[in-house]
Amino acid sequence: MAHLPDLQPGWHEPLGALARDGGVNFAVFSENATRVELCVFDAEGQRELRRYPLDGPHDGVWHGFLPGVGPGLVYGLRAHGPYAPEQGHRFNPNKLLLDPYAREIVGHFGWRAEHHGYELGHPDGPRSLDTRDNGTQALKARVAPAPASQAASRPRRAPADVVLYEMHVKGFSKLMPGVPEALRGTYAGVAHPAAIAHFKRLGVTTLSLLPVQYCIDEPHLAERGLRNYWGYNTLGFFCPDPRWAQAAHRHDPTAVTEEFRAMVRALHDAGLEVVLDVVYNHTPEGNEFGPTLSFRGLDNKTYYRLVGGDWSRYENLTGCGNTLHASHPRVTQFVLDSLRYWVADMGVDGFRFDLAPVLGRGSHGFDPNAAFFTALRQDPVLAGVHLIAEPWDAAYDGYQVGRFPGRFLEWNDKFRDAVRGYWLGVGQGVGRGELARRFLASSDVFHHGQRLPTASVNFIAVHDGFTLADLTSYATKHNQANGEDNRDGRDGELCANFGAEGPTDDAQINATRERVRRAMLATLLLAQGMPMLCAGDEIGNSQGGNNNAYCQDNPTTWLNWDRADGRLTELVGELLALRAAEPLLRHPRWFATGAAEASIAWYAPSGHEMTPNDWHDAGQRAFGAQLREAGATAPRLMIVFNPDAAPLPFLLCNGPWQLVLDSSGESAHHTLLAGQPLNVPARSLLVLRHVST
Fold first, then answer.
1. Closest-CA residue to 51 (of 96, 110, 11)
2. 350-353/456-458 β-pairing
3. Active site residue 354
4. What is the pLDDT of residue 190?
5. N or C end of the chain: which has fewer CB within 10 A?
6. pLDDT value at residue 556
7. For residue 154, which of 377, 352, 344, 408 has the smallest C-alpha distance?
8. pLDDT value at residue 1
9. Residue in 48, 273, 277, 354 annotated catalytic
10. What is d(CA 632, CA 48) in angstroms, rounded to the nearest whole number?
11. How far apart are CA 557 and CA 648, in angstroms?
12. Pick the catalytic residue: 166, 349, 390, 470?
């Protein structure tokens, strides 16, 4: 670029860089800066061509219009103001800052001393000022072309019909047969016909992708040569991570974006939804000892929650060093703008919010009526997408299961622990009453404020913790490969090895493990609420006992398709086909007791309805449930649970019945009359359908 024109005042909205009217408009928020500069670089991002002071502030926004330029322009920001950590300000114009609204990011981030706003090793620590310029090494934004909207192609499934499939973009297809080598582990790999065929074979409806927004590795991982594989360290909240794009696209952010958009289109064409795991609770800038990359240098006091009485320190409600100040109106706007971008421009169908209580925190703790939730729920662009909360964070009152407002869905760890405890029989075990509560979508937690059973997102295993195969194969975690002396990861996770730690040649132990896995999957996929399957559990995938494999970008976390358990995959397909065929297994309302509405009744093995004494009898663990349609004179379905190590006779009533599913695979599908005993295999779940006479 031989000559750059002068900057015009431009507009104060929208925030970020927008190619329009024969140029590019820039708008940057900073409430406390005294000056903000736009720094234009050459296409390689190595030579700064010119600096422009932006006009403003206009309601806290600095802005300017640069004519004669367009998509592809590389730029960064510098913010002037007080460097006074004790007052919450950390302005340092020597540090080039990434635009928080960057649609494209260029460069390669490496951990260097120059990226810190203070002088490493200085006696005053983070209160010192580093005057070195990091412009050459810093990540930079690139003006993106405006993509066409993708919202029109969205499948839009009702919550009662949704089956979530939590997966990692790379880990799912990296070793998948049928996916071409060049596409394995990429967005394009997820959209390949071989991958889509697997999703359809299972019967899942909605892919819940682990974070795909632009992420950088934490310094302790970089020092050990490891990567943040899961991606919970977002810096570019408007950019798909290039790591999961095809190799030919990774150095071209425009191509990365289009590959992501093409993936969404292909999945939509197949009737599949896409939900993103998003991290709006912290940033990679960490605590007061972290680098100055973007938010900290633009307006530290606004973007972060600071410790009252000592604004040089950060509230760490996330366990990651800092906490975004979501209750500030401009931070709320930033999060909503990002969400709208991923829906309208990238086409996604919803979000799972990591450490979601952070977004509802005010000065007095978590508030279900916080301004962020109010703004989110009334936003017209976001009105039709799924909103899923991880309902806990790392703060003093961080466990908020059941307290999220409106149409929020919530991960329900009470379901996880009840199902594991019931089928594994570890510790004190879990009784019939607790399993029944969780099987009916935890009404004690969610049946309030017009919330529905689908508010409970049920799961047995997710990315964080043991896989289904490992929780039935290991009695303790094995995280040594993470480099933290096995101190990381969840302690006390409900698991059982059934007599041998890890893989074994003992046929009896392997048979027991298989039975328990199948019974737990059946419980998950037939329960009321919204089921979520962890990718790989349907093929018996193991991570070698690592229950915190966040930094393992290797075969530990890549699904091992060569050792896939085909029988287990078939069972998942059968279970989800049954769920789809029987509306009572995905009832959108709470079951009632009257005949005019859908209802459920519980039965003991002796054939009588459960009494209070039965519910409190810790010596008996098997039981059954009969589901009745509204206005029907006879039940439609019966589900029988037997977690014991021996088969048992179960006396049937209200028959005749046709056996349609046995999780153990032992029983023949035959008709049984009322009053006949049903032989229920050990460690199994059975489903029967009423036969009309």
1. 96
2. unpaired
3. yes
4. 98
5. C
6. 98
7. 344
8. 45
9. 354
10. 75
11. 39
12. 390
